[in-house]
Write a structure and sequence with these properties.
Chain B: InterPro entries: Mediator_Med17. The complex is a heterodimer of chains A (219) and B (645). Chain A is an alpha+beta fold and 219 residues long. Chain A has one domain: Hypothetical Protein Pfu-838710-001 (Beta Barrel). Chain A contains five helices and eight strands, in the order H-E-H-E-E-E-E-H-E-E-E-H-H. In chain A, a hairpin with an 8-residue loop joins strand 4 and strand 5. Chain B is elongated, with a radius of gyration of 58 Å. Chain B is of the alpha+beta class and 645 residues long. Classes of the chains: A alpha+beta (219), B alpha+beta (645). The interface between A and B is medium-sized, with 32 and 18 residues.
Chain lengths: 219, 645
């Protein structure tokens, strides 16, 4: 029986990056819809997306953003840790890079690395020197179509000191709709595919690329 | 001044208005307006909002007219206290307006807060009558269109076959409720493949929907149909007067197909496989009853083709100890030595039942299993698990997601990628069915042949496609309370696992003889153990018993078991030996003590040696009264128990 050569993790990662099958780019379109109209959107998405019989899939996640001040640069390093509240699943840690400045692309493109981790990640990051930036709860539904993932979720502010979920108040009277694809570099038609899909959801929700710089610095 | 001119003097009447007439007739005149007053009056008449002279003139005219009428009426009041008030107000208003205008213009020029946009020019106000005429014309055109459509519908309705036309639309609606349809230029195309359900088969499953032609033109149009139905692209079919609708399926999907699964024993020659002709002949089959049936059959044909193609591919790729054979539309796989599984695709386009009956019965359960397995593959292709939390990547299964945090090693990861192919699964299921049937046969024949202890087998109602369990109880009728031997047998695909009551686990192969031997051995030990318990009940002492006596001839099957009993007062002994070679053979011997044939002799002088017990004499066990072995033993023990102390 032939034994495959054991390569280090670094080599495998390098190999995956060069051969372009490690998904490390996130293509994103965002929009919002009022509470009163979200039922129509859900109905529409149920018809457009895959697996009509099992959709929509509810989710209830807690996202915590940790930041680390770096001595070399002004920008702190941000890492997001997301945890599923309604079921037992490993926590996910995510790094999001700066969005690519390219006006021609129909979607927001930024580098993205996801990693599953054990429950001690928050303590680990705190020990490393990260501090809590912000946290919020996201509760909603997700759909998929091919490699596109569509989430319709309500963001809920966490009020410390209160245990019940009822006590947590939503940030606004609307739902945030996100259409995202995580793909390796070099795939050209992802943006086009997403744009065509976003067209089908107009005029219920306008999914567009949001320029974060214009929104202003983070408080 | 010339001499002929006449001096004309123009004078005002100099009559002032009468203010008051006294009682004595004296008239009080209003003093004439002073210069300032007259200036005030003139100034008051100036309207600063009027810009053009024409307007002013008009104003003057109308003002003078109004004044004349007012003069005629009579009194003219001077109302304002300060005559310049009105003028001042008007000037002030004008000034304010000009200031505002200049502010607005300066702001607009800046273009930071206010931008001037050109207005669309209003069309000239047309006269209302023109609008009325144009609207009337437009409405009449719309009415003509609607009337034309209504006329067509009415004509269609009033024709002889009005029922059939509405049938077409209603049937098209029903067709749409069950199948996916799409309109491509003139024709209606449908899709009956499993592509949206997760199939990756590349045979197209498109069909065409047309109105069915009249019966008189059937032959001619069928000729047209066959030439155009071989390609399933959009064709403009001549739509004649319609009856119901007709579906045209591609030629390779016509007819009826099913997967025939046969388990065959001892088929020596492989070349005599039955190969069914696929029949690409002329389009003999028209509609199979209604369109629904046609489409269902065509879909089934497509499914069977996909299934067979998948099985054939796997048969060639898999490496089995005895290689699988694929001939034409048959796949042969070996389940067990001399037992073969034959899967064939039977596709018949003719409807004659002249085909010979298959050698063995077609196994419906396995066919259904095959269908289910392919559907499972489709399901796995289309339903991927959702990521939780939602930022996790789409795609990996739950196990893969846990592999990272749970530090799975290389072996575990490689195992995750392995999965069983459809052919392997169906072979496993077929093997299991065969093992189960064989086990049942062995147990049933044993139960029929061996009457003495009764063999009772309870099969589990719930089992999996690759494993069943049976619990076997060996009891003697009438002596259930004395003792019972039970064992559990797990029937797997190629082997059996037997678990005895005492905890022994034995693994048997697929040979039926092994199970038979096992049960016979169990019967042996059952008899002896029940005998031991029975002896205790009868107050006999068990001197010894053994399950594996190494005496006598070497047997093909295990060893004999034996038991040695002594009567309550010790004067009798019973020795029992049970063999199974291959039938169960019981030998019983009795000994008496003291022995009758002891005579003191010079070697052994004392009398007490007669108590050592005599030789064993065989009992003709088959002549003893009793229904079963234990029954006979009971009688024997009862008869040998003596009253004397």
């Amino acid at each position: 029986m032939a034994m495959a050569s054991v390569s280090s993790a670094r080599e495998s990662l390098q190999h995956a990056l060069t051969n372009r099958f490690l998904p490390n780019l996130e293509y994103l379109l965002q929009g919002s819809i009022l509470d009163s109209a979200v039922e129509h959107l859900m109905h529409r998405l149920k018809g457009l997306c895959d697996n009509v019989d099992t959709s929509p899939e509810p989710f209830h996640d807690l996202e915590v953003c940790m930041s680390l001040r770096q001595p070399n640069s002004n920008q702190p390093l941000l890492l997001r840790v997301r945890r599923a509240m309604d079921r037992d699943a490993p926590m996910q840690m995510r790094y999001l890079g700066q969005p690519e400045v390219d006006q021609r692309r129909p979607t927001l493109v930024r580098s993205c690395m996801d990693c599953a981790c054990t429950n001690g990640i928050l303590d680990f990051l705190t020990e490393m020197g990260f501090r809590l930036e912000f946290e919020y709860l996201a509760k909603g539904y997700m759909f998929r179509k091919g490699r596109m993932k569509i989430t319709v979720s309500k963001l809920i502010k966490i009020v410390h000191g209160k245990q019940q979920d009822m006590a947590n108040e939503p940030i606004s009277q609307s739902y945030i709709v996100e259409l995202s694809v995580v793909a390796p570099t070099g795939q050209e038609n992802v943006g086009e595919e997403m744009r065509v899909f976003a067209e089908q959801l107009k005029p219920l929700v306008q999914l567009e690329k949001i320029d974060y710089k214009r929104l202003g610095p983070m408080p | 001044m010339s001499a002929n001119s006449v001096n004309i003097s123009v004078e005002t009447t100099c009559e002032n208005q009468i203010r008051e007439i006294g009682y004595d007739g004296t008239e009080l005149y209003q003093p004439p307006p002073t210069l300032s007053e007259s200036l005030a009056k003139c100034a008051a008449r100036i309207d600063f909002s009027k810009t053009s002279l024409d307007d002013l003139k008009k104003e003057e005219k109308s003002a003078t007219e109004a004044e004349e009428s007012r003069d005629k009426d009579g009194n003219q009041f001077q109302e304002s206290l300060w005559p310049w008030d009105a003028v001042r107000n008007k000037l002030k208003d004008a000034f304010t307006e000009i200031c505002v205008l200049s502010d607005v213009i300066s702001i607009a020029k800046d273009k930071r807060y206010l931008v001037l946009d050109p207005l669309l020019e209003d069309g000239d106000d047309t006269k209302p009558i023109v609008q009325v005429y144009s609207r009337k014309k437009a409405i009449s055109q719309a009415a003509q269109v609607l009337l034309g459509g209504a006329e067509r519908l009415r004509n269609a309705h009033s024709e002889q076959r009005s029922r059939n036309i509405s049938d077409f639309h209603i049937e098209l609606l029903r067709l749409r409720q069950n199948w996916r349809l799409k309109k491509v230029s003139n024709a209606i195309i449908g899709d009956l493949s499993y592509r949206t359900a997760g199939s990756k088969f590349n045979m197209s499953g498109t069909f065409e929907v047309t109105k069915a032609e009249e019966l008189a033109d059937d032959d001619q149009l069928q000729g047209q149909n066959s030439s155009s139905s071989s390609s399933s692209t959009a064709n403009g079919m001549p739509i004649k007067a319609a009856s119901a609708l007709r579906v045209i399926v591609p030629a390779e999907l016509q007819g009826v197909a099913y997967i025939k699964v046969i388990t065959q024993k001892d088929q020596e020659d492989l070349c005599s496989a039955q190969v069914n002709l696929m029949g690409h002949g002329p389009n003999i089959t028209a509609q199979v009853g209604v369109w629904q049936k046609t489409l269902e059959f065509a879909q089934n044909v497509l499914f069977c083709k996909e299934l067979f193609a998948q099985l054939a591919r796997e048969a060639i790729q898999l490496q089995a100890p005895i290689p699988h054979v694929v001939i034409g539309n048959q796949i042969r796989a070996t389940l067990l030595p001399n037992i073969q599984l034959i899967i064939s695709l039977c596709h018949s386009t003719t409807f004659d039942s002249s085909q010979p009956a298959p050698i063995n019965d077609h196994d419906h359960v396995l066919e259904h299993s095959l269908h289910q397995l392919l559907r499972e593959v489709h399901y796995k292709n289309s339903h991927h698990p959702f990521p939780h939390p939602s930022s996790a990547p789409l795609g990996p299964s739950k196990k893969r997601m846990m592999a990272g945090p749970m530090a799975a090693d290389r072996e575990t990861l490689m195992d995750m990628t392995k999965s069983q192919t459809i052919l392997e699964q169906i072979i496993a299921q077929a093997q299991h069915i065969f093992m189960r049937k064989r086990t049942q046969y062995v147990l049933d024949t044993l139960a029929r042949d061996v009457k003495d202890p009764q063999i009772v087998s309870h099969w589990n109602a719930m089992n999996s496609p690759t494993m069943s369990c049976v619990k076997i109880n060996i009891v003697t009728h009438g002596y259930d309370a004395i003792g019972r031997t039970s064992l559990v047998i797990h029937v797997k695909e190629r082997s059996l696992k037997c678990i005895c009551r005492d905890g022994r686990v034995m693994r048997l192969s697929y040979e039926p003889q092994e199970l038979r031997d096992l049960i016979l051995c169990q019967i042996n030990s059952h008899q002896i153990s029940c005998l031991v318990s029975l002896a205790r009940c009868m107050a006999w002492t068990v001197l010894s018993n053994s399950n594996h006596l190494g005496i006598g001839k070497v047997e093909p099957l295990g060893n004999a078991s034996s038991c040695l009993l002594a009567s309550p007062n010790g004067d009798r002994m019973i020795a029992v030996q049970i063999r199974c070679d291959p039938q169960i053979d019981v030998k019983v011997y009795i000994a008496k003590s003291p022995r009758q044939d002891f005579f003191p002799n010079p070697l052994v002088p004392e009398k007490l040696w007669e108590n050592l017990g005599g030789s064993f004499k065989e009992v003709r066990f088959d002549k003893i009264e009793g229904k079963s072995f234990l029954n006979k033993m009971e009688f024997l023990m009862a008869s040998l128990t003596s009253n004397t102390a």
